[in-house]
Amino acid sequence: MMSDVTMSDLPFTQSINGKNYYLDVFITDLCCPFAVLSNNTKLIIMNRLILQQRTKQFHIDVIKFCEDFPRNAAGFEIAKQLIRSAGSVGANYRATVRAKSTADFINKVAIVLEEADESHYWLEITRDSDLKKGTEADRLVNEAFELTAIFAATNKTVKLNNGK
User: Fold this and answer.
1) Rounded CA gap, 82 and 161, in Å?
2) Side-chain half-sphere exposure of 17, counting CA atoms within 13 A
3) Inter-residue contact 130 to 69 (CB < 8 Å)
4) Per-residue pLDDT tens listing for the chain (164 residues)
5) What span, in angstroms and rounded, lies between the C-alpha atoms of 98 and 44?
6) Which of 81, 124, 129, 157 has the greatest count of CB atoms below 10 A from its CB?
């Protein structure tokens, strides 16, 4: 379904401690992923298996993150939404392997993209509303941002490669 190497020219930016970072994404079947941060550009190269492991770990990390949310209506609702959307990222990405056609693959990746973006939203709400703060909240917000960028790039590339 996917070409050996895909790249997006979409301008994804993330501000971390007042500094803007630009994210370019490559997804490849190579066995050696790596990341380089230079000139405010983060380059991510990874294979399908590593991305499956990364999305699964994201879900696990979100579950652990939500364990000590406040025991009130906001805490329960946000934890429920966040755990659901984070789980959907990993489960739906895993399902892309079983896509029956390119159109089915595009649809599955679009679902993963929506869920990654929703996870990013709920993590920002959690942090910005002071429901839960700290380095783990910041790390998860950044991870959700990167996953959203990865799947947006994948979605764009597969559509361009298939004339959609």
Assistant:
1) 33
2) 4
3) no
4) 333 333 333 344 444 445 544 444 444 433 333 444 445 555 556 678 889 999 999 999 999 999 999 999 999 999 999 999 999 999 999 999 899 999 999 999 999 999 999 999 999 999 999 999 899 999 999 999 999 999 999 989 888 888 76
5) 24
6) 157
